[in-house]
Amino acid sequence: xxxxxxxxxxxxxxxxxxAGAVGRGAVEGPPALRELAATRGxxxxxxxxxxxxxxxxxxxTLLRNFAIVTPENELxxxxxxxxxxxxxxxAADRIVDFAQQHGLRxxxxxxxxxxxxxxxxxxxxxxxTPAVAQDLLREHIFTVMQRYHGRVxxxxxxxxxxxxxxxxxxxxxxxxxxxxxLGEDYIALAFRLAREADPAARLFYNDYDHGxxxxxxxxxxFALLQRLKAAGVPLDGVGLQLHCSIKDPPKRAxxxxxxxxxxxxxxxxxxxELDVETMTGSGTPExxxxxxxxxxxxxxxxxxEAKIEAVVTWGxxxxxxxxxxxxxxxxxxxxxxxxxxxxxxxDPKPAFDAVTHLLREPAP
Length: 364
Ligand code: G3I
What we know:
By secondary structure, the protein is an alpha/beta fold. The chain contains 14 helices and nine strands. The chain has an eight-stranded parallel beta barrel, surrounded by six helices. The radius of gyration is 21 Å and the shape is globular. Ligand G3I is lined by residues 72-73, 76, 118, 241, 273, 324.
């Protein structure tokens, strides 16, 4: 960067801070996360909430640091299709329009989610027969994908189909309406319908393994993707969610190994929902933030080493608490959930500093 620009940024940063602008994440200052990541060939993104776009510092921090956005909930079947014959796109349109206005890429999340918990109530009342389910799946995928043709490039076509349990003899798949109606072939069908609906889109399978990199569930996800590719199913990429914890963090070498074996299937690999919870585990608040910083650094370091395409975090400011996670972990509902790169005032946290420090290091 030339000295003039650097001086300009410094003055702007001081002005911003003097003016009491909340959150250094939003004001001019050292190169932003997305710029630093781009110098290392990595795209960074985050999940966004349509309602939060009303807040200037949310928008500014988002635009300064991220190049990809994923609607956190606004494109899921439950909110998009509250009734069989009714689609609600206003919230999703808000995010997609904002992204298009600012040149951000959009990840569409998600067209077909396996578990019944995530289906609109009316779907579970439909006959679970191949004919009914195929028509419903086709209608949903075509209606949603064709609305955003050319504006949503990557789609999580199928989300979380692989079961957590690995009891001998148990089904490897999550039970749900689509599996009951169509068997495991609903997965391949969803991808085939998606390719037909929007041939220009890239089609992803998205799943998690409890924040771990390798293990029985990751192996079952890998095996599913191997089967789909071998069967010629139109599958372009894999989204690894990586909802991590300081209590049981993923190992960098295992992350690299899993990224590489998936890439060897010919898949685009993206980390799609990175966050690092600090509520379990041990240590003082400062120690927990330091542990969190190390986990973020390890994931980004593995992404750089394996040369994957993108890392998308599942949010970026601690201002918004992850109430669904507190419920899932039976934690007190009033507990803070400092899981992301910026604190509740949009100031960078140790995790942000650890990641940007890594990205400033010369490529090996
Ligand atoms: O919008 C309704 C609101 O109208 C209603 O009053 C309120 C109370 O019922 O619910 C609101 O919807 C909630 C929605 O988040 C928006 O806030 C749902 O109940 C709630 O279940 C939903 O939780 C989301 C969850 O997925 C289930 O869809 C979380 O915010 C979201 O972070 C989480 O994200 C998932 C990914 O999609 C898939 N991977 C795991 C990840 C974390 O669980």
